[in-house]
Structures are given as C-alpha cells and as structure tokens.
Amino acid sequence: MPHKLFVGGLPWATTAQELEDLFASFGEVTSAKIIADRRTGRSKGYGFVEMNTPDSARGALDALNNSEYGGRSITVDPARDAEAEAD
C-alpha cells in the first residue's frame, strides 16, 4: 500500500496542521497538505497525507475512512498518482 493518502470531505476551515494532527496518532506524518483553489485560495475540501510507513498508512485508512471529523463524514483512500499531483 502506498504511504500517501487522499482525504476527502474535509470541513472547509481545516488546516494542514489539523490534518497532520488527525493522522499523527497512527504514525509519523511526513507531510499533510490541504488543496486550495488557485484563484481564490479557499480550500477545496480535500487534501493529502503522507505517512512514513505502509503500516501506519493502512492503520489510518482503516480507522478514519468514513469517520466523522468536524461534523462531516470524511473519506480516506490511497492516493492515485493523478490526484497526488493535482494542486
């Protein structure tokens, strides 16, 4: 399993630090990024998290996929190459 995860359905106000904090209990987070609209700078409601090991990524995916965060149901999936480079 890849170490990079796609996280969708995030509340608009979620910061990269909050995203990192959410995943940190499952292992070391090497990067966390919220994707923003280039024109407005506003969050698009999704981001990417990279974990240091496949096991920590799997644990985070299993625990957080379809869970509630900030009053919204979030989706966690392995990132695809095209998604990982879209920003």
Summarize the topology:
Blueprint: E1 4-8, H1 16-24, E2 29-36, E3 43-51, H2 54-64, E4 68-69, E5 72-73, E6 75-78, H3 81-84
Antiparallel strand pairs: 1-3, 1-6, 2-3, 4-5
The neighbouring-strand order within the major sheet is 2-3-1-6
Instruction: Kindly provide the radius of gyration, computed on alpha-carbon positions and rounded to a whole number of angstroms.
Output: 12 Å
Residue runs with pLDDT of under 50 for 5 or more positions: none
* Order of SSEs: EHEEHEEEH
CATH class: Alpha Beta
Q: Choose one word for the global shape.
A: globular
**Beta-strand content bin:** 25-35%
N- and C-termini, Cα separation = 22 Å
Structural class, judged by helices and strands? alpha+beta
The CATH superfamily title: RRM (RNA recognition motif) domain
CATH architecture: 2-Layer Sandwich
Short summary:
With 87 residues, the protein is α+β, with helices and mostly antiparallel strands. Helix content is 28%, strand content 34%.
Question: How does this model look, in words?
Answer:
With 87 residues, this protein is of the alpha+beta class. The strands form two sheets. Strands 2-3-1-6 form a four-stranded antiparallel β-sheet, covered by helices on one side. Strands 4-5 form a two-stranded antiparallel sheet. The chain contains three helices and six strands, in the order βαββαβββα. The protein has one domain (4-84): Alpha-Beta Plaits, CATH 3.30.70. The protein starts with a strand and ends with a helix. The model has no long low-confidence stretch (mean pLDDT 92). The chain has helices at residues 16-24, 54-64, 81-84, and strands at residues 4-8, 29-36, 43-51, 68-69, 72-73, 75-78.
